[in-house]
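Minutes, project check-in
Item: structure for the 63-residue chain
Input as provided by the requester:
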Amino acid sequence: MGINKQSDIAAELQIGPTDQGMVRIYLSGEGIDLPLDFEPDEAREIAAELLAAAQSAGAGETG
């Protein structure tokens, strides 16, 4: 599956700090239980990539 391929799979997304000083992105759904831990600097890089993708996706919106 790629970025541009649609899917019927549904999952929940939770993001928060752990008690170990990491940032956890947690995905859960049918057959999915995936905790992803990142150092704070890595999490900031991911956040920047998310913002850039949102800006790029929003550039094609009309409103």
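Outcome recorded: The longest strand covers residues 11-17.
No further action items on this chain.
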